[in-house]
Design brief:
The protein is an alpha+beta fold. It has 2 helices and 9 strands; from the N terminus they run βαββββαββββ.
Amino acid sequence: MTRVKFELPADDLNRATAFYRDVFGWSAQQLPFGYVLVDTDGDPVDPADSDGGISPRTEFVQGPVLIIGVPSIDEVAQKVAQAGGTLLNAKERVGDFGFSQYVKDSEGSVLCLWESLQG
């Protein structure tokens, strides 16, 4: 079973964080590497179980992205390529939390594969 989260790109992380807090009551936790974890229920953010995040806008993250938890990015990335998708970057370590890799599905939608370091 996979878990799906979301990622919202922003040009200004502080402005975007304030927007979602003020409009929807979301809670947020700024991480030291330029990423904001969010919980949509307003409870304090649990980094191991957040609902999603706000990230700096990048070349391939221009709109909302689904983050799909997988047991092995290496295995799933291979399946993505075999099924007609595209790998957008190499697997990257994200602090002490896990690994991520952005891909496009067969229809061009950007997804983020997520492999957690925490059991």
